[in-house]
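From the shared-data thread, chain only:
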Amino acid sequence: MGSIVAGLFSTHVPRLMIFDPEQRREYMKSTVTSFYDVLPRLREERIAPLDFDTFVVIDTHWHSTLEWVLNAHARHEGIYTSDEIPWMIHDYAYDYPGDPELAQLIAQECRASQVWAQASAHRGLPVHYGTLNVMHYYNPGPAKKRVLPISVCDTAEVEANLAFGAALARAVAASDRNVLLLASGGMSHRFWPLAVIRERASADPRDINGENLRAWDERIMAWWRAGDHASVLAHADAFRKECAPEGRFAHYLSLAGALGGAAWTTSGIQYGNYEAAIGTGQANFWFPVT
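Structure, as tokens:
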């Protein structure tokens, strides 16, 4: 019998892949992100001690329309260059074992539960930087864990995302896999206009694009710290409408659905600061499972 060993809400911002310290300072100027140190610390303190088989990554940079898509390749390997910001992420070699068996089990449970999902092993199915950036920090070295990337469905309502998460959890429980469920993406997600975007590229929260967006993010994070997921879910529609959260907040909603929905009361442990990234809100929260 399998289990979800922990949940993780994690940033995947492209600047994580700027490896030269001088280039980091040139881009972010007055306030360079702390996440270069925070993500390795999170891995060392929280992830490394856990016994699990697979990272299941809800990737808000992988957008699907008609259903959730699960990458069922037995291996993810190649050279990745971002088509969005190639100067930040380019010629990046990656190689991870996949988990086609778990992908198929989740897709089967979704079909049985009338949730639209498919496991795909079609040639050319890409892996996105929402998966690769976090795996660079959380899944390094030769003894890599399996990786199962999953899309966010752009047309899914709040309840549909919760239902998908619940189906995912049932499939994991029926499997022989222990998994870490990783919600990869940000919070509020409104970029600055091109005329000023480079001037507002620091990690300082004053560079969030709007006081209302920052206030919403702070409210969500306070509920996470208190374990009040019911309040987050009760306000999820309003958050999605007012703040355009990354992936329409589907990464968190799927995580919440998998861990109990409105009945989930686990307090989140914040790693690092709340930061800006060219207008967007970014944070990292660890949710232990007991």
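Residues 3-288 form a domain with the Protocatechuate 4,5-dioxygenase; Chain B fold (CATH 3.40.830.10).
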